[in-house]
């Protein structure tokens, strides 16, 4: 694209227009050719179809199948309670689908925020006259007018400007509004001052521009396209939950099919085989898992919100915990974004910044330079503008006063940009034209031939330039941002950039946030690499990195220019190094870095605040935007918003995320354990021919009633002592592991089943039952035996939930009563047990009967074995016993 480079006459030929704009007829033809000036979204599906899509996961399919089988059983044998089972299963499916649907719907709002950046109305010249029309009707060749406060409606080239300043932060990330010009000022179109871009804002002045790009062909449209290409991948937790569902579903299908066929072969009636199939499915599927995960993540996100971290997508809480690399901005995130003067070098010496005793002509000229070569200004809320310039003006006003600025009118400005590294403003001072210049010290020194010391000037020798260079380097090595200042008298508004008179040097500091150093140390001890990605100068980036402990020794510094031509192999090699800093980069290079890190297998958390950061925020495993300084688009594209813009908040959130993964693993271990005493009764029913020890409705009572709240309590468990002293969990580390299955199915689950069968057979034999005798579902003895089995599972689950609170740490060290929510869960579990066992109105629905105290407590010895046995396991784990670590660590 060279629209900014060609002459204005040739530009008119390109867009087939003129300064008088288009006629309505031509505009209509152009609209048909180029389309409306809107940001095109992906084809949207109706909400009902999105909701129905949630019923396609394995759990949903299995539970729907179980529900249909229950309805079939009700049809074949009415009045057996299967109707209620079918309804309960379908309700569970709908609730789970609703949770997932809501989360997905929220994520689709990201691109909507881009629409808000376009104005609704715009003033254009049509048929030679000014008129108002909708921004969507703007087309290539239209001439549109810009006034203070307007949002630019399309990409255009200026044909007229009057002190026009544009806030380009939404596109380029530059915080300071820039003056526009009619001439091309830069090779790159985004930095050329004769162009305006869709979605940016007019801060002051006015002008006219000719449209050359609309809608998705604009710069912001390209960002949207890039964001669209960066489709959000499933986060680690989502992948793990999907894997867990798949494995458990396969187990359910295999067991259900094998034992359904086996029951038919053993001569069971069809209705009995159907009930058996339902039981296998319901026993294997932890119906409360997805709601429990969602509720636990919600609780965690609320805790994080209190710590200034607002989580938008619930599953992202855990993603933070698996982070291996944090790519962070510098200004405002690692630092306070509050510049202040630290050093002042004038008259050939350093002077006290707080109480300058020197009031020489050089000092007065330097103070004047700070005020006049400056675009910050006073507003009703105080100083507004770039932090560097506001710091200079605030300091200078101590000696000049606010009124003095307006008495020195500016007649010309040559703005600062990354290419020239200097700013020049020409002002009328006491009737004379004076050009003031500030910028990078090496640039200022190159343009100066004399130096002002005291009240007289002298030649600036090569030896003096060398000394000033050493002074500048000394300040920079202390972590200060150094600016040089010069001036000269002129007869014209626009000056030649030579023979300036050198005034002095100023060193500014942007202090790091106090808590960042500890946060960096904490992240490092947790095995997380922190990479700074900034648009600032290498010296500034390095100095801040040293102060906050981000690097030790010499940094591996990479600039944006180096990155442009770097071979992929070398780039990937550099990304694996420590002490890594990227300076002078742009947002598209940030996206390049994020992509490369992910290709290397890293879990990447990235920070950003501008519209142009949206692709990187979305492509990262965890996008973190700024709540104070961030744009709406960045906040929409991110997974988490820092309400205090503070890096330390990210590290605190990572600790929360790690805890969540551990806690989800804990309640999965807890929920899976009860599968064994739920499945074995059906297998015993088929293979041994005994009355079914546990009914389907009681299985649902366990999964959705007694297990749900204690599992939620585990999700609220505080972190164990070493959570931030471990390396990030491996990308291949699973929620459902071999050791967890051994623990849940092979040890604790077997003990629970043993407790259940022990109580079940005790009640049966004590009631006169003999082996081989069949009992109807309405038989009081059968109902009492089933109740005893159910009660045994609940009592053992109380012991199980207590041992699941820690995976390595002793429960005695952790403290028994530190998790109030868990104990409310246990109380609710026991209350549900009491209601089902002892309240008469529940007996007909659940098929239960009252138990004596002795019968109720038959499983307590098994519960004690579970509790103290696991304490022994933890002792050996902490002692790093190889056998226990290999087979019994979950």
Mean pLDDT: 84
Name of the CATH homologous superfamily of the largest domain: Calcium-transporting ATPase, transmembrane domain
The 3D shape can be described as elongated
Tally of contiguous helical segments: 36
Quick one: how many beta strands?
26
User: CATH topology of the largest domain, which one?
Assistant: Calcium-transporting ATPase, transmembrane domain
What is the CATH top level name of the largest domain? Mainly Alpha
Structural class: alpha+beta
Low-confidence stretches: 110-115
| Proper CATH architecture of the largest domain | Up-down Bundle
How many domains, as an integer? 4
Percentage of residues assigned to helices: 40-55%
Rg from Cα: 36 Å
The proportion of strand residues reads 15-25%
Distance between the amino and carboxyl termini = 58 Å
The largest pleated sheet is described as: 9 strands, mixed
């Amino acid at each position: 694209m060279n629209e900014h480079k060609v002459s204005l006459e040739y530009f008119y030929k390109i867009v087939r227009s003129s300064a008088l704009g288009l006629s309505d007829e031509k505009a209509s033809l152009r609209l048909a050719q180029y389309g409306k000036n809107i940001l095109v979204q992906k084809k949207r599906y109706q909400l009902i179809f999105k909701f129905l899509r949630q019923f396609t996961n394995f759990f949903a399919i299995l539970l729907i199948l179980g529900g249909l089988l229950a309805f079939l059983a009700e049809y074949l044998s009415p009045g057996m309670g299967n109707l209620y089972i079918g309804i309960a299963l379908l309700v569970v499916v709908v609730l789970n689908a609703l949770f997932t649907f809501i989360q997905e719907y929220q994520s689709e709002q990201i691109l909507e925020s881009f629409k808000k950046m376009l104005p609704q109305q715009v003033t254009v010249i049509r048929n030679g006259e000014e008129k108002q029309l909708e921004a969507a009707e703007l087309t290539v060749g239209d001439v549109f007018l810009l006034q203070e406060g307007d949002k630019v409606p399309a990409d255009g080239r200026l044909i007229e400007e009057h002190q026009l300043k544009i806030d380009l932060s939404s596109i380029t990330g530059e915080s300071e509004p820039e003056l526009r010009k009619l001439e091309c000022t830069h090779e790159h179109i985004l930095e050329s001052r004769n162009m305006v871009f869709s979605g940016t804002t007019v801060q002051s002045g006015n002008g006219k521009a000719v449209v050359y790009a609309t809608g998705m062909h604009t710069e912001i449209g390209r960002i949207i396209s890039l964001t669209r290409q960066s489709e959000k991948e499933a986060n680690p937790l989502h992948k793990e939950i999907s894997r867990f569902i798949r494995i458990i579903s396969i187990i359910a299908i295999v067991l259900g099919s094998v034992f359904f066929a086996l029951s038919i072969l053993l001569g069971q009636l069809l209705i009995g085989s159907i009930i058996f199939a339902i039981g296998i499915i319901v026993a294997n599927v932890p119906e409360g898992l997805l709601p429990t995960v969602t509720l636990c993540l919600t609780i965690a996100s609320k805790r994080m919100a209190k710590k200034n971290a607002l989580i938008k997508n619930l599953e992202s809480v855990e993603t933070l915990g698996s982070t291996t690399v944090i790519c962070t901005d510098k200004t405002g995130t690692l630092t306070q974004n509050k510049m202040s003067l630290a050093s002042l070098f004038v008259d050939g010496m350093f002077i006290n910044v707080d109480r300058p005793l020197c009031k020489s002509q050089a000092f007065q000229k330097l103070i004047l330079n700070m005020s006049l070569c400056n675009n910050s200004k006073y507003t009703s809320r105080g100083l507004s503008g770039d932090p560097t310039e506001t710091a200079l003006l605030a300091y200078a006003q101590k000696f000049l006063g606010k009124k003095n600025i307006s008495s020195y009118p500016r007649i010309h400005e040559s703005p600062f940009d990354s290419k020239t590294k200097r700013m020049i403003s020409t002002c009328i001072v006491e009737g004379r034209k004076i050009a003031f210049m500030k910028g990078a010290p090496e640039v200022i020194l190159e343009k100066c031939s004399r130096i002002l010391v005291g009240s007289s000037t002298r030649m600036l020798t090569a030896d003096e330039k060398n000394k000033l260079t050493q002074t500048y380097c000394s300040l920079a090595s202390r972590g200060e941002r150094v600016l040089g200042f010069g001036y000269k008298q002129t007869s014209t508004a626009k000056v030649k950039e030579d023979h300036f008179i050198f005034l002095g040097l100023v060193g500014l500091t942007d202090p790091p946030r106090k808590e960042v150093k500890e946060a960096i140390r904490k992240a490092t001890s947790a095995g997380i690499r922190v990479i700074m990605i900034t648009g600032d100068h290498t010296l500034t980036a390095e100095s801040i990195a040293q102060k906050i402990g981000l690097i030790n020794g010499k940094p591996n510094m990479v600039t944006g220019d180096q990155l442009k031509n770097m071979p992929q192999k070398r780039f990937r090699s550099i990304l694996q190094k420590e002490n890594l800093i990227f300076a002078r980069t742009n947002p598209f290079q940030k996206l390049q870095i994020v992509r490369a890190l992910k290709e290397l297998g890293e879990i990447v958390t990235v920070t950003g605040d501008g519209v142009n950061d949206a692709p990187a925020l979305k492509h990262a495993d965890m996008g973190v935007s700024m709540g104070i300084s961030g744009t709406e688009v960045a906040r929409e594209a991110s997974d988490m918003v820092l309400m205090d813009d503070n890096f330390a908040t990210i590290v605190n959130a990572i600790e929360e995320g790690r805890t969540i993964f551990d806690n989800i693993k804990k309640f999965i271990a807890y929920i899976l354990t009860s599968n064994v005493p739920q499945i074995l009764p059906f297998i015993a029913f088929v293979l041994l021919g005994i009355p079914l020890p546990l009914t389907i409705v009681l299985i649902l009572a366990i999964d959705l009633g007694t297990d749900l709240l204690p599992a939620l309590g585990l999700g609220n468990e505080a972190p164990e002592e070493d959570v931030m002293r471990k390396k990030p969990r491996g990308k291949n580390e699973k929620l459902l592991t071999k050791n967890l299955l051994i623990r849940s199915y092979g040890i604790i689950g077997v003990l629970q089943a043993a407790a259940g069968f022990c109580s079940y057979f005790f009640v049966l034999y004590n009631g006169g039952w003999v082996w081989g005798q069949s009992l109807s579902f309405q038989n009081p003895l059968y109902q009492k035996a089933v109740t005893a089995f159910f009660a045994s599972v609940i009592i053992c689950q109380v012991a199980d939930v207590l041992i699941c609170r820690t995976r390595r740490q002793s429960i005695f060290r952790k403290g028994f009563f530190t998790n109030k929510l868990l104990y409310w869960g246990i109380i609710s579990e026991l209350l549900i047990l009491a209601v089902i066992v002892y309240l008469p109105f529940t007996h007909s629905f659940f098929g239960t009967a009252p138990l004596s105290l002795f019968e109720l407590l038959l499983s307590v010895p098994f519960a004690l074995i579970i509790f103290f046995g696991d304490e022994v396991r933890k002792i050996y784990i902490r002692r790093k016993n190889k056998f226990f670590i290999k087979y019994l660590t979950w």
